[in-house]
């Protein structure tokens, strides 16, 4: 299961940040055998062993004794440019351990595995150009001899046919003589010096992170930051030999030699040479995800390469000693030209590596142009000699033991895979080099598990975090294969430790299988308080699987977010085990990294037959978190997350995206975004229209006539509240506009008041409509009549000022910043976005009141319903769908067949194929009227008024 990852994922985080976020930032103060120890007494089973360097475990006593003896003897550590007999003995001992004689390989020592690979590549490159120069020199010598032979020939025919099918075809002409012909051949040969040298590596390969070895490392995430593409290297499939065979066959370069036959006819001799510098492989691809390569493939690859003179490099850096052999390639019967060794060679103590080059292929001048300051030092060489001695004594007893333990380990893990086929995708490996590939955690039914995996865009890190923190087992994440963990214990691993690891992974699989997010991330919570529900049976997620993406219809997206911490329980039922304080801490700690997520998707059908698929994208920020950001004037994070959600909507090919709840507020109703590729709407126009319709319908159902009632708009200074205030003036004779006490609020309310006055004048004296609502008041009508001579831009202010000075008694249009005036009103609409309720029993009259609550969370406190059962509190802007489709949004409590008006407006715009933005920035009464007509056209109508019983997500 090949997974392609991009370059901007985990590499965008620093190592300290990765360790902190994944809770892998342990500090170890002691190491012994198979375990690490922390200062607070934790004992950790280490199945990482220094990324495979701890072949003999931590601080093996014989290795320690070797080090102490050498230091006690004051052996020289820095005696560069001198003979190093210990290093030579090491090379001879390894050569013998590989089954050859002591002089079969030349060894060049280094300090790390990537340096050993660099040496092999460097030598192969040097050797290639030496051979190239050898061919050129041979050609020059032969051409001198050729000219000597033809010196006395007055004429030699140059048949063009001998050049057909060669690289010289087209260069040679019938007018050429021997002199010009030789010049053309020499020019061609010299051009071969500048032909880029190519290497062949394997897909999934990892050979190091210095620039040379990085070039032949497959993962683009490592190469991309250094602008290393695939120039100079071919990555071929390790499952299909034909890939390699095709490249080898197509990269033959030819040298051409001239000769003269006895018949004085010119002949052309072709000598081929491969244009490939080397083929490199790992017997088991480690960083690529622990993929053992088959002997058949490697043998075929070696044979093909050797046929044309391509050297073969066996990268045994990680496999050294892990699979029951010093060198796996030799044990498989292969015959590579280069071997690179490192990691376990240093006994877990020293940094030492080695490139072994077959003596017949070694270029003697190479060690004069390559050197390393610290390579081949006495101490590291002594330790490596002792390591080889330990590994090979008693007929390779410890190597054989490691191989047996590896087989047992893999067999046990395969049984776990059988029990959890939907959790573990594959168990791979050989010896004590094991990989467990999990299915991607982003597919989990648990919101928490999905989000934690999104932090790094890999599954392996959170899995490694769980095993370390909950089971005290240290495994290694394979970053080039994001769903695989790597297990590389010492050869001394005990069977009981293997059993403990297998049991721990079984427990992990049970958690992942159930989607028990809390158990998976419990260690992320500080002193988590567990409620009694922890002892209850686990309740699985009730979230329905997403329907598939439709290609044949228009698409819309809607952005939303949880109202409060409690709503996360609907996202992930396992969070019932966690107190809200800890859930809040979890969200705050990771809010920067949690991704917007597609949480629901529905297809909505118009009464006309048109269909739209709407996708709901949720941000992991609560209403309170948005409100806090606004109060602190720090909206960077919320806006970044909204931008990510918009990008997600665009990638899903949505034509319209609705900004719901606080996503519209913190973006100034979308104005901060300039999205040419996506139509934005806040849904405010239909929300305003449906809120008014809902209020009027509920009033009439209770026998209340709006034409005789006082109405109030709480939040009248807002985008929705201002339009509601203007439209409500068409129905009610008396209006109370309530705004906040913030700076500029009074001026905004006055401006709205002027608009209401101007609207009343226009309806009566320009549109010719009969007085209605606000204008039906006799005193107001008289003022409207007297406003005819006033300039239009001043008319609204004139009318308002005249009402203040002329009307005695109850003012038909009041502006306030306190709630006291609500006790005089029978109809109330609240449209305030706040993190908590603002309307309480003491603010309103106890009966004959209808309140339409448009706020999210609810503006009306629950105590109003409890204390005043005759006060009706209804949902604001609830729309009934023509075909009664249900939208199952976690954390939401929509009635079946209904949506909020803001969602409905988003759907309607997609049905209409609308281009451009709609409820974007300030909305107008004209937009409200227009969208109501569109809703009626598609059969979207006001849902029957229902009491608002719970804060909702949208």
What does this structure look like?
By secondary structure, the chain is α/β, with parallel strands linked by helices. Helices cover 38% and strands 16% of the residues. It is built from 30 helices and 33 strands. The strands form eight sheets. Strands 4-14-13-12-9-5-6 form a seven-stranded mixed sheet, sandwiched between helices. Strand 12, helix 11 (328-331) and strand 13 (338-341) form a beta-alpha-beta unit. The chain is elongated and about 125 Å long. The two termini are 38 Å apart. Mean pLDDT is 88; it is low at 1-11, 527-537 and 947-954.
**Main pleated sheet:** 7 strands, mixed
Number of helical regions: 30
Total number of strands: 33
Task: Quickly give the structural class.
Answer: alpha/beta
- Read across the widest sheet, the strand sequence of neighbours is 4-14-13-12-9-5-6
Mean pLDDT: 88
* Overall 3D form: elongated
Unreliable stretches (pLDDT < 50, length at least 5) are: 1-11, 527-537, 947-954
End-to-end distance, in Å?
A: 38 Å
Helix content: 25-40%
Radius of gyration: 39 Å
Strand content: 15-25%
